[in-house]
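Comment thread on ticket #2218

A.B. wrote:
> Attaching the input chain for the structure job we discussed in standup.
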Amino acid sequence: MENVENIGNTCFYRCLNLKTINLSSCITRIYDYTFNNCSELEYINLDGVVELDRCCFRNCNKLENINLKNIKQIGYKCFENCINLKNIGTDLKYIMFGGHCFENW
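C.D. wrote:
> Ran it. Output below, let me know if you need it in another format.
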């Protein structure tokens, strides 16, 4: 998967046993609902990602740490209900936000 640059809509939607993801640094964009409702997801490496579309990590209840250092845009309700999110690993002032990105955080 070294030439993969994007992960499509709902690709891992509701994968209830998914706990850890190490993405290739070639992946620059994660589309709508890709990891939505992955309630066991604890860790994802986003080193090459610059854009997160809407609801990418919505309802990922066990996600605690995420590194957004290269992110330029976060979509609508991207991290909604990520109630255990403690660290986002960046300064948010240079990121373009969609509405309700961190609702119920």
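A.B. wrote:
> Thanks. Noting for the ticket: The mean pLDDT is 91.
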